Amino acid sequence: QVQLEESGGGSVQAGGSLRLSCAASGYRFLMSRWAWFRQAPGNERERVAVIYTGAGITTGIATYADSVKGRFTASQDNAKNTLYLQMNSLKPEDTAMYYCAADRGGGGWDWGQGTQVTVSS
Predict the structure, then answer these.
(1) Is 79 helix (H, G, I), strand (E, B) or coil?
(2) Angle, CA of 24, 104 and 82, to the nearest 5°
(3) Phi, psi of 83, rounded to the nearest 5 degrees
(4) How many C-beta atoms lie closer than 10 Å to residue 60's C-beta?
(5) pLDDT in tens, 58-100
(6) Which of 16, 34, 5 is nearest to 94 (CA)?
(7) C-alpha 100: how far from its chain's center?
């Protein structure tokens, strides 16, 4: 059974930090493509980071949306099959539901249930 479980969301003031986690089960963790998305009420879902976990290397290869570049960092723990999204210098416009996603090929993604991030000014 494939499952993605996010955690780590919460409420912070602008300028603060949060680290999101995504525990993946039922997937091939290495040599796979993953992503973090977010969606605020009334907005389209935005892809904020894409991660390729490579072949056993500690750090995967990640790319970021311009809106979060330099503030968000994706990482992984291969032993725990877990992805992380470190979010620093948070802004009120970062407020959204954040989702972890696994690339299942053919342009489709499997989704977690999401974790809410709220940033107050």
Answers:
(1) helix
(2) 15
(3) -105, 155
(4) 21
(5) 567 788 999 999 999 998 888 899 999 999 999 999 999 999 9
(6) 16
(7) 5
Q: Is the pLDDT assigned to residue 106 strictly greater than 80?
A: yes
**With contact defined as beta carbons under 8 Å apart, do 72 and 88 qualify?**
yes
Cα separation values, 44 from 37, 39, 41, Å: 10, 6, 8
Task: Output the CA–CA distances (angstroms, integers) from residue 90 to 30, 93, 96, in the order listed.
Answer: 29, 8, 12
**Closest by CA position to 102, among listed 57, 45, 50:** 50
Query: Which of helix, strand or coil describes residue 110?
Result: strand
Q: What does DSSP assign to residue 70?
A: T
Per-residue model confidence (pLDDT) at position 47:
96
